[in-house]
Amino acid sequence: MPFVKNIYLFVLLFIGVFAFLPQEALAQAKEQGIFERFVKPFPEIPVMDKAEFNEKTDALRKKPYGQEVLEYEIRVPKGWTEMDEVSSNFKMSDKLFSDLNTFIGPPTVFGRSRIDIQALNLDVNLTAVQWYLRYILEGGYTTEGFVVHDDDMVEALMIVMEKDYTFYLRTKVIINGAKVIIARYYVPVNIMKEKASMQAAVLDSFNIINKHPREDMEMYDFRFLDVAELKYPMNWKVVASPPRSVDRMDIALLNVREVKDTYGRVESSLTEGKLDVTIVSSAVNNSLVEEVREYKKKIESTGMLIGEKLEFDGKVSYGRDIDFGLTEVYKGLDSANSSTEYEFWYTLMVGGNYYYFMMLLTPSRNENFAVWAENTQNYRAMVGKFTPMVGAFLDRQ
Q1: CATH T-level assignment (fold) for domain 35-208
Q2: Edge-to-edge strands of the sheet including 98-104?
Q3: What pLDDT, in 10s, does the model give residues 192-212?
Q4: Does residue 14 have a pLDDT over 50?
Q5: What is 3-30+216-393's CATH number?
Q6: How confident is the model over 305-316, as pLDDT tens digits?
Q7: 3-class secondary structure, 252
Q8: How far apart are CA 248 and CA 282, in angstroms?
Q9: How far lies 156's CA from each of 130, 132, 134, 183, 278, in Å?
């Protein structure tokens, strides 16, 4: 029976993890900052009767460019003009939206209402809320409402300017397979009161017909001899020394972004995240509590301090050969630069005859949301795919 089944070890695990931090750090952070600023309920509006909505709209089903992954359905107000698909030579980008269709309402002195449906390739491993928050932040928008339906669908309301007109823009974002599909419904602010129910009902009717699972991102493999295998994203770089013993092994990985000039030549490289992985045999003299304390000292020796505990969604999975796993998130403090915010994502796993420590250091969600979102999603993937191998179950005594 694996040694982790002993209840005494479970006690040690929890004591060890909490010993990782000063006692004052155990208090939960009271706010998450960026999510509280943007994710909020929609303003209350009258709900349109379904029969009335069906009477005032036409049901459409479209398969843009013949691609099943893009096929959608929507109900559009009667009398609106449908624009043709813009190109038969279709190639999806991961930077610029491709137009799938546009519907334009009748003219008013305040501007025309319209619906745009667009798509692009999903170039990063993000949830819908992370992807759209990044988009909002890069555009400098603020939200009047923002609702998360699930990991692959969000909806938001904001005010935007186009030329001399101001619109209420309601947006629905759906991730399907490796595509981001987005429907935008613009209504001039002066007629929003009478059109709000229609706007909400139309966006509610917008759905993807053929649901595709997320595509796994390409990852490299790193093996700790015959003990464990780590999968990591292709833009991360491994820094490792040859292991001297099967009792203790360490590596570090860096998320490196290359900065290129206008000719595509690399000018410099920026490190945007760091992952430390330590594997320790249960046969070593130190207890698990002592190992965690040593890990804490190692981090502090770099000038980083561990601050208060932060809330997170708890969505971290562990491999089937992991007997126990625990992940927590803490604020990181740089003793040499107090103006920059960081986060520590810390995971302790037990599998076979080994303890596995993984720790991500990343700019915080409030410091650089785009980098934080990508780093933490990659971290979840690396933890979930971490696999003890046959050597982890051998008795080497």
Answers
A1: Protein Transport Mog1p; Chain A (3.40.1000)
A2: 81-82, 98-104, 114-121, 179-188, 165-176, 153-162, 145-150
A3: 999 999 999 999 999 999 999
A4: no
A5: 3.40.1000.10
A6: 888 888 888 889
A7: strand
A8: 10
A9: 13, 9, 13, 11, 41
